[in-house]
Amino acid sequence: MKSAGLLQQLDTQLAQLARAVEPHANQRTAKARFDHQLFHGHSTRLGDYLLEIQQTMTQLKQSVQDNRAERVAWMAERVVLQMGALQRELATQTLRSREAEPVVEKENLYEKLSQHQDFERRLRAMIADRESLLAIQETLAQQQQLQRELAALEGRLQRCMQALKRIERSIENRERDR
Fold first, then answer.
1. Which of these, 95, 56, 72, lies nearest to 1 by C-alpha position?
2. What is the pLDDT of residues 17-45, one digit of tens each?
3. pLDDT per residue over 113-158, tens digit each?
4. Stated pTM of the model
């Protein structure tokens, strides 16, 4: 079968790529290296990209077994493009080693966390204040104005909560990497 031969060739190339990536697999880079459409992950380690290629290869083999011709063609192209991108990245490792080390954030994440927690507390207080005022308003225009203010404050609170989550994840990542 034609597919079996092609899969075998891809397996061989993937094994060669895995051997080439092995010495560099856990080295971190300053930023993610690949397009988000090519790789779903946004890692800074080449080993993670190799793992994603291996997962794509597994999906390709499953599509071949299921006789899904269109998916097989798409998955095969994706595997080839991913392997090519990783091979090019490996070829530039000597140049990459001369790049500056990742800049350590000078900001104190714990201070930033504390600030955002204070913002959250104040926004919640403002929302509670507007809600109590809304309950005692007599005219429709005043109620509508307070509802607009409430909506704006709730949007700010939502963005604040998202920022808090990002800061907490950054702290967790920094602690884990130590």
1. 72
2. 888 888 877 877 667 777 777 788 777 78
3. 999 999 999 999 999 999 999 889 889 999 999 999 999 999 999 9
4. 0.53
3-state secondary structure the chain: CHHHHHHHHHHHHHHHHHHHHHHHCCCECCCCCCCCCCCCCCCCEHHHHHHHHHHHHHHHHHHHHCCCHHHHHHHHHHHHHHHHHHHHHHHCHHHHCCCCCCCCCCCCHHHHHHHHHHHHHHHHHHHHHHHHHHHHCCCHHHHHHHHHHHHHHHHHHHHHHHHHHHHHHHHHHHHHHC
d(CA 129, CA 127): 5
